[in-house]
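User: Run a structure prediction on this.
Assistant: Running it now.
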Amino acid sequence: MKITEVRVIVTCPGRNYVLVKIVTDEPGLYGVGDATLNGRELAVASALQEHIAPLLIGRDPDRIEDTWQYLFRGAYWRGGPVLMTALAGVDLALWDIKGKRAGLPLYSLLGGKTREGALAYTHVGGRDFAEVEDGVRAAMARGFRVVRVQVAVPGNRGTYGVAAGSAKGDFPREGLPPEEVWEPSPYLRTIPRLLAHLRETVGEELELLHDVHERLNPVQAARLAKELEPYHLFFLEDPLRPEHKESFRLVRAASATPLAMGELFHTRWDCLPLIQEQLIDFIRCDIGHLGGVTEARKVAALAETFQVQTAWHGPGDIAPPTHAANVHLDVSLPNFGVQEMVFFPEAVHEVIPGAPEYRDGALWPSESPGLGCDINEEAAAKYPYRRAYLPTTRRADGSVHDW
């Protein structure tokens, strides 16, 4: 069996996605993958089309590990979000082919199920505490047992995680990223009050999460983690920037609040210091930016050794094939923790059918062979690429800050 064609499909059914379709010389046998990098989609598409696809033609798609090493190490220049996202798209498509050829869902190839469904969490944001509370109650009514909560911060313009329309940023010029203005002091005053309000109103049984989104310095993060201890978070997400992992020692020493980190990591070596020193409780890499299932399995094995659980990144800016891969891993791994998820709009289901099914607070993998996803290329063509960016953030004095 040989690879005969690699198609790179860029489509925008509400937001931009980069999809990979690897075709083999066995009639009707192909695999689908996701290589979406939000705000830099065309860079990944170009890397795939111009540099990676020619290397795949004629290769045996069954040799996934060899192909992964060939693309990662063989090129000499390695790593980074663009190349690891491109590699993930290829890797997912090859695992999809392997599952289809075997007639088995991906989780079966990974050792079979250790659980039936994957505990999932949803996002709730609001303009004030009352709106967040209403959103949390609505999520509970849908069966969610774990909810991530964010709220608009008084005095700041725009707030990460708050629903569009609640606290928008400004657009400096048409076609450029929206800009938010953020200051740490009002944020640090607001978030403990939000969690106190929710514990008083919705109780202790619901698991709550909060995402800092890497905006705090080590002392600020340590303060927040300590002040949130009474509210028993499931975890505090991404409290620090990804570059200086040693700073997690300060946060860990200050508080017993569980910590999660990893969506901006791209290899197992990024993850290793935090896992090995047990400075985090959940590793939450994005499989679509980590090199795919092949690398994610290795990260999960490292994490299991040090009693760290997985919480793979699962936002709306990665396509259904990555969400499907998340859940196939979730149900097969012994150290699974929780899975971030979103509800896709109908246009996404039209273009990329096969996203994991949500019910009863959990996500359920497809029983179809492979990932369980497909690409409707005719439907994809109806939604052409539209340039778009993630927001950027500035401090009140105008200097750039982490979004």
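The first strand starts at residue 3 and ends at 11.
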